[in-house]
Amino acid sequence: MQTAIAAKPRPKIDNVSRGFWDNARAGKLSIQACRACGHSHFPGSPVCPKCLSEDQVWAEVSGKGKLLSWVRFHRAYWDSFRDDLPYIVCLVGLDEGPLLVSNLVGVEPEQITIGAAVEVVFEKVDDELTLPKFRICD
């Protein structure tokens, strides 16, 4: 008898992060911006980390950036990721400043160069969740 594989972990969508996930579902990458001082940051928070204002909005960004680091996973730390092995996790420095951890898709490890230009792509998981991932720009 086969055992069912547990579902992949899902992000906790709350009042602070909802704007990010709503935008992702619409095919837009966003970071939180403070209306009081203009500081942009990610992940979102209830107050601006620079001036502590609560006046935060999710602002759409270009989705372009630079690859700062990456790792290729060969082991599934959650059983639900076993069928995805191997997969690449990356750290992207967005052109607008904040850093994002995501997946790098559509590339073989031999083709990856630190500092490469990357752009966001979106993977629809279901009607509720769309994940922003990155690919290397040509």
Overview of this protein structure:
The mean pLDDT is 94. Strand 7 (117-124) and strand 8 (130-136) form a beta hairpin. By secondary structure, this protein is mainly β. It is globular. The chain has one helix and eight strands; from the N terminus they run αββββββββ. It has two domains: 12-61, no CATH class; 62-138, OB fold (Dihydrolipoamide Acetyltransferase, E2P), CATH 2.40.50. The strands form two sheets. The chain has a five-stranded antiparallel sheet. A three-stranded antiparallel sheet has the order 2-1-3.
Q: Can you tag this structure with a few keywords?
A:
three-stranded antiparallel beta sheet; 8 strands; 1 helix; mainly beta; about 140 residues; globular; 2 domains; OB fold (Dihydrolipoamide Acetyltransferase, E2P)
Q: How many helices does DSSP assign? A: 1
Shape: globular
Helix content: under 10%
Please give the radius of gyration in angstroms: 16 Å
Beta content: 35-45%
Strand order of the largest sheet: 6-5-4-7-8
The top level CATH class name of the largest domain: Mainly Beta
User: Major beta sheet, specifics?
Assistant: 5 strands, antiparallel
Uncertain segments: none
CATH topology of the largest domain: OB fold (Dihydrolipoamide Acetyltransferase, E2P)
What's the number of extended β-strand segments?
Answer: 8
What would you call the structural class? mainly beta
Distance between the termini: 47 Å
